[in-house]
Design brief:
This protein has about 190 residues and is an alpha/beta fold. Helices cover about 40% and strands about 20% of the residues. The longest helix is centred in the first third of the chain and has 18 residues.
């Protein structure tokens, strides 16, 4: 049986990360008898994608997206579990599924584009303290310590333009470039 997985190394230039992931996948392959192919070059496919990036946060996936985002400093045992479950089409217990509200998404988008709290407040016509509160909520959801951790965790996502009509559904306002939003996580 053959499985293929897509891995994106985002903001990581160290070749040891790629070699380490390859070695862990080889260990899974040897223990399972599966033939596992790793695709480091085609970032977006119909399958799920593991994104390894810098930052200090917990591994997570956003509801309705086929991506799992992992910090590069995750313990090897946790990465091994995430990879193993991913190969079998499951989400590891170490990966938290999070949902973001429309305001959180709008604020996150502006954070990624390096807007200050004051600029975000003016743009969205909300109080500066409200902006700060939403940013704190985002940090809590992924157990991030700093704004830069949030940047690393979410910069892989390409935000779409959408109005902030409170009566609309809670669908995500972002997706990988050129891709439609997948409603289910689908691996290999």
């Amino acid at each position: 049986m053959e499985r293929k997985i897509d891995v994106i190394l985002c903001k990581i230039t160290c070749s040891y990360t790629k070699k380490g992931i390859t070695q862990l996948v080889n260990e899974i392959r040897n223990g399972s008898g599966l033939h596992i192919g790793i695709n480091f070059t085609a970032p977006y496919s119909g399958r799920g994608t593991l994104v390894v990036t810098k930052g200090n946060f917990i591994p997570f996936t956003l509801a309705h997206t086929p991506m799992i985002v992992i910090p590069d400093k995750v313990p090897v045992s946790v990465l091994m579990d995430i990879l193993t479950e991913f190969v079998y089409g499951r989400v590891s217990q170490h990966v938290k599924t999070i949902r973001l509200g429309r305001r959180e998404i709008a604020i996150l988008k502006e954070m990624i584009y390096e807007k200050s709290d004051e600029e975000i407040s003016t743009l969205l016509n909300i109080n500066k303290k409200t902006v700060s509160s939403h940013k704190d909520n985002i940090k809590k959801k992924i157990s991030a310590s700093t704004k830069i951790d949030i940047f690393y965790a979410f910069s892989i996502f390409s935000f779409t333009n959408s109005s902030l009509n409170e009566s609309t559904s809670e669908d995500p306002l972002f997706m990988p470039p050129g891709e439609q939003i997948n409603r289910m996580v689908a691996y290999g």
